[in-house]
Amino acid sequence: MEPTEASQPRGHPLLPGIIATLLGAFSLAVAALLVKVCATALSTLDLLWGRAILQTTGLGLFFLIRCESPWGPRGLRLWLCLRGILGCLAVVGYFMGIIALPLSDSISIYSVKPICAALLGACILGERLTWMHALATGLSLLGCILVAKEEHHDAKSKHSSELYLDPVVAVILLLLAALFAAGTMITTRKVMAGTALRPEVPVWYFCFMDLLLLGAATPLLWGTSFTHRAADIGWTHLASLAGVAGCSVLGQQFFTYGLRYIPSALGTLLLQMETVDAFVLQVIFLAKVGPMSILGALLICTASASLAIFELRSSSRDSDNEDGESGESLNAETTDRSSVSSERDLVNLAAVDLESRPVGHATDPDHLN
């Protein structure tokens, strides 16, 4: 079954996408906080496998109850598979960074994904790449350096023995995760824009590919630090694991639905609210945030917001130009129709005049003159 055109909601066409993306950002921030809770006892493999099994089972039951196929239209399955693989790689790198670095720092570094999306769009989709993209990239990288520098200093002086990853390695993994997340945004926009595809279908592909990749990677990771458990597992950790799975699915479903109505540039900007949510959650539940981390996060958010605003204004100008061109073509078409109509009226009047004359006079040159 081929995807059909999505019906436009009443009111402002961007409003459903904006609300859904903001809800998705909050859900992902809550999931990130719960990951930190799980990491106090569960190993990385415990966390990844538990999340994958719970969310795949939940979505599978959803499609089973509705008696629907989770695989989507045949023409979009290749894009859906790519979306699932990129999303899995992004989440694995993201979770590893969250465990090794403070929550706010991890999300701040991960928030360079709008910059990665702009670069991928230029290379793959042929989108424009301007000086604003270069400036935003520089600011974001500077913010990442500030975040990594403070955490590297703290790790050496306080708790380096508690981390299974060096902070610099964790930053690199988070940057790669941001690149994969940008690819996820592009492929999601590809399958959702202009179609009536259920948002659960792309999320199902993510869950299914997640299980496949984990099954292939587990033998390689077994016996390493990824299987190390910090403490005995309690009910709090299990409940947090269920919350990670639920919030991850909700967050993905919300922002997948939002990309049906809003462009990827606006979607990535709104997802940066996850950084704000994470800062608030960390201050409330975990610990204070260092000054260099705050400065780095501000630079990253400033760069992402500047690039998104630039893209929105550019697309608005392009839309105005298209409206102007369509208006001119409409006026020209109206003028042509008026001219044709006038010519037809003259021909009809001439025909009526000839029919009203006597037959003998119709061919008389004097009468014709």
UniProtKB/TrEMBL annotation:
The keyword Transmembrane applies. InterPro entries: EamA_dom, EmrE-like. It is a multi-pass membrane protein. Keywords: Membrane, Transmembrane, Transmembrane helix. GO terms for cellular component: membrane. Residues 16-147 form the EamA domain. Residues 354-369 have a biased composition (Basic and acidic residues). It is found in: Membrane. The keyword Cell membrane does not apply. Residues 328-341 have a biased composition (Polar residues). The chain crosses the membrane at residues 12-35, 47-65, 77-101, 132-148, 168-191, 203-222, 234-257. Residues 316-369 are annotated as: Disordered. This is Solute carrier family 35 member G1 (Partner of STIM1) (Transmembrane protein 20). The lineage of its organism: Eukaryota, Sar, Alveolata, Dinophyceae, Suessiales.
